[in-house]
Amino acid sequence: MSRTVKSLLIIFLILLVDQVLKIWIKTHLSIGDEIVVAKDWFILHFVENNGMAFGFEFAGEYGKMFLSVFRIAAVIAIGWYLFKLTRQKQIPFGFIVCISLIFAGAIGNIIDSLFYGIIFNHSYGQVATLFPEGGGYSSFLHGRVVDMFYFPLIEGRYPEWIPKVGGNPFIFFRPVFNIADSAITVGIFSILIFYRKYFNKAEESQEEVSGEEKPAAENETPA
């Protein structure tokens, strides 16, 4: 099995699991509903967001559109980069796996943004329907990303001596995320820890492939 096929298989499996889980959540829970998988530390908690990973958002209609367009451009760039990497045998396959994870995660959230507003009705106070008769809750590029993983590992209160937040409750880990977010995070941190040096090597290899050798005459000193 070639490196390209292995990369495509990784991307396909992540997208499949990500979208199956999101569709199941969307068609079985309403916003705010949750399923306790493991008491006090692992909860499926259904939320939607308009923005980036782990619930961060860009405000407003134009902010959402800008983010969707930016994601599409980023996916095209990452896809092109990944295609080039699979053709360079000196690049370790682990690095290609990391880029594949980032690429799959980006596509997974783009699918929500592009199509979920069209194919689902809203989930506020009701369980959404796939392909509802009255149409979706929004338009193309304005879908909301489905998140569900919630790990409130530690709950407590900030010490009283901390300014502004002293005495207030805190939860770690508070953000709610999905499989696509996880794939992006694992890919990025793995590169930073194990494969950072291969960015330069990949770029140098690409320059060697695309560049042309100068004619010998250009390097000769005139007699």
The share of residues in extended strands comes to 5-15%
For the terminal residues, how far apart are their CA atoms? Answer: 55 Å
Principal-axis shape = globular
Helix content range:
40-55%
What series of H and E elements makes up the topology?
HEEHHEEEHHH
Q: How many β-strand stretches?
A: 5
**Which structural class do the helices and strands define?**
alpha+beta
Average pLDDT across residues?
86
Q: Could you give the order of strands across the largest sheet? A: 1-2-3
Radius of gyration: 22 Å
Largest sheet: 3 strands, antiparallel
Q: How many helices? A: 6
**Number of domains as seen in the coordinates:** 1
Low-confidence stretches: 216-223
Kindly describe this structure.
The structure is a single chain. With 223 residues, the protein is of the alpha+beta class. It has one domain. It is 51% helix and 12% strand. The chain contains 6 helices and 5 strands, in the order H-E-E-H-H-E-E-E-H-H-H. It has helices at 3-28, 60-86, 93-119, 179-195, 198-210, 216-219, and strands at residues 34-38, 42-49, 145-150, 154-157, 169-172. The strands form 2 sheets. A 3-stranded antiparallel β-sheet has the order 1-2-3. The protein has a two-stranded antiparallel ribbon with strand order 4-5. Helix 1 (3-28) runs parallel beside helix 3, helix 2 (60-86) runs antiparallel to helix 3 (93-119) and helix 3 runs antiparallel to helix 4.
